[in-house]
């Protein structure tokens, strides 16, 4: 039943992508702006009331080494999916590199708690199914703001669903899944604190936070896919670089 729901969602999202294609690299395709703005305001309210204060409390209470370990563990859990997407894109070199990092950190790094590969300046080239779909020729689709997840596009949203469905670690037990989910939440909280100044500036200090977040997201995502923008903000590329 769960699989059928995921498949049906994928078909719906494919329709969203097919029905709305950007006409130019720098064009903003936002036919659902009215609904998106409402979702943006809801996401801002959740950030202000829940995510921001909880993230700050998490950072204040949890020692930095433990916080880093949780983020390392969460990042390592995503490595098998990273490998699979590189293979799907024909990037065998990146797939081998990510496999090596995963094996080293999963063994010597105590299950990924310690980023041993990073000590030797070995970092994986991040990718996702949204990028795989782009490499396969699927159009970007319309801009959308997702509940809690924030900025996205039709293609990127479909990619999120497929990343979930095809994750090599999707066969985890309920207990293992709970641990993985807790680690991912910890990573999100750490990121909210690390990028706090930039996020606050965009959400609470700009004249139109919706347009600002949309612009930075689309620029950084398109840049990741190979397009270049003269005014690209490197910090936002790091913040939104993987969907």
Describe it:
Strand 1 and strand 2 (150-153) form a beta hairpin. It contains 12 helices and 2 strands, in the order H-H-H-H-H-H-H-E-E-H-H-H-H-H. Strands 1-2 form a two-stranded antiparallel ribbon. It has one domain (2-62, 127-240). Helix 2 (33-61) crosses helix 9 and helix 7 packs across helix 8. It has helices spanning 2-19, 33-61, 64-77, 79-88, 92-107, 116-119, 129-135, 154-166, 174-194, 196-204, 209-224, 234-240, and strands at residues 143-146, 150-153. It is mainly alpha-helical. 67% of the residues lie in helices and 3% in strands.
How would you briefly describe this protein structure?
The chain has 243 residues and is mainly alpha-helical. It has twelve helices and two strands.
Note the run of SSEs as H and E.
HHHHHHHEEHHHHH
Output the strand order for the largest sheet: 1-2
Helix percentage:
55-70%
Rg measurement, Å? 18 Å
Distance between the termini: 26 Å
Structural class comes to mainly alpha
The biggest sheet amounts to: 2 strands, antiparallel
- What number is the mean pLDDT? 86
Structural domain count = 1
Low-confidence stretches: 1-24, 229-235
Principal-axes shape call: globular
State the assembly state of the protein chains.
single chain
How many β-strand runs?
Answer: 2
The fraction of residues assigned to DSSP E strands is under 5%
**DSSP helix count?**
12
């Amino acid at each position: 039943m769960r699989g059928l729901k995921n498949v049906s969602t994928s078909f719906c999202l494919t329709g969203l992508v097919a029905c709305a294609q950007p006409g130019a690299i720098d064009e903003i395709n936002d036919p659902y702006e009215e609904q998106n703005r409402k979702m943006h305001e809801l996401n801002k309210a959740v950030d202000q009331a829940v995510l921001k204060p909880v993230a700050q409390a998490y950072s204040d209470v949890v020692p930095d080494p433990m916080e880093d370990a949780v983020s390392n563990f969460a990042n390592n859990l995503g490595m098998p999916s990273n490998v699979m997407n590189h293979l799907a894109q024909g990037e065998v070199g990146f797939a081998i590199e990510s496999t090596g990092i995963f094996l080293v950190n999963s063994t010597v790094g105590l299950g990924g708690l310690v980023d041993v590969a990073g000590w030797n300046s070995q970092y994986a080239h991040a990718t996702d199914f949204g990028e795989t779909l782009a490499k396969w020729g699927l159009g970007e689709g319309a801009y959308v703001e997702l509940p809690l997840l924030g900025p996205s596009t039709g293609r990127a949203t479909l990619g999120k669903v497929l990343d979930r469905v095809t994750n090599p670690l999707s066969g985890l037990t309920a207990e293992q899944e709970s641990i993985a989910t807790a680690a991912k939440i910890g990573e999100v909280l750490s990121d909210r604190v690390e990028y706090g100044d930039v996020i606050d500036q965009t959400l609470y200090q700009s004249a139109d936070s919706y347009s600002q977040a949309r612009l930075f997201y689309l620029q950084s995502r398109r840049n990741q896919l190979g397009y270049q923008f003269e005014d690209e903000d490197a910090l936002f590329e790091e913040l939104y670089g993987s969907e």
